[in-house]
Design a protein that fits this description.
single chain, 247 residues, Rossmann fold, globular
Length: 247
């Protein structure tokens, strides 16, 4: 990357609690590799002071508190942080108002849905393929793997140039077809009726994905490029366009 940071779109990347198997630097690396400038946004930052950004990346982490979408917490939801939920929802709303490009990943995908009035299935009873096989080496920090069907004529289809992609998977909650937020478009699906990607057609560029395109198990595998590094390239290209149009 050229040392002149003014040449690169400024990408806010949310950061909160430490989660086993998750690393903020993975997101930062992917943004940098696609010629974006990563800017860490910690929980508690005054949103009113956040100005002049060109993209928002909402990261993975702990479960969203079900009271955010008007539901009671199930026994499977054990770790939440409603302050993070509210903070990221406010950031998302600001990005939507400014029409700043948004990429939301895993928990971020679920928040993207909740932020549009949708809800979540609080626990997938069938562990596979959405989480690592029980008893597998390293247990809960390993990924599950599965195919994802991409809907034609969507933003995701344009990015991946495919109707089927292969992705990692590390979640126990999910967006299902019957709880997609009003106005959002489901652009990818997987087993058990799980929505793997959502798009907001009211935005110039707004996309969320349930898998983890930032992890090296995706980025370092050339066969998975269309669901990982190509995704970041498209996001940063959209942010660059936004940056140029806002001058």
């Amino acid at each position: 990357m050229n040392n002149d940071n003014s040449l690169y779109p400024k990408i806010l990347i949310t950061a909160a609690e430490n989660v086993v198997g998750e690393c903020w630097n993975d997101y930062s690396r992917c943004v940098s590799n696609s010629n974006g400038l990563p800017i860490r946004v910690d929980l508690g930052t005054d949103i009113e002071t956040i100005q002049n950004f060109d993209g928002l990346l909402i990261t993975a982490g702990i479960d969203i508190d079900p009271q955010i979408y008007g539901a009671e917490k199930s026994d499977y939801v054990t770790e939440t942080n409603i302050k993070r939920d509210q903070f990221e929802l406010a950031l998302l709303e600001k990005a939507r108002q400014l029409d700043v490009p948004v990429l939301a990943i895993c928990r971020g995908h679920q928040l993207f849905n909740v932020g549009s009035g949708g809800s979540l299935l609080q626990h997938l009873e069938n562990r596979e393929p959405h989480r690592a096989r029980r008893g597998k080496k390293n247990g809960s920090i390993d990924s599950g793997w599965h195919n994802v069907e991409v809907v034609k004529n969507t933003l995701l289809h344009k990015i991946t140039n495919s109707t089927q992609i292969f992705t990692n998977s590390r979640h126990h909650q999910a967006v299902l077809s019957n709880n997609v937020g009003p106005g959002l478009i489901a652009s990818a699906l997987a087993e058990q009726n799980v929505i793997e990607a959502l798009e907001d057609p009211s935005m110039t560029w707004g996309l969320s994905v349930q898998w983890h395109p930032e992890r090296r198990e995706m980025t370092d595998n050339a066969d998975l490029k269309n669901a990982s590094t190509t995704l970041f390239d498209a996001f940063i290209a959209a942010a660059k366009k936004y940056s140029l149009n806002s001058i």
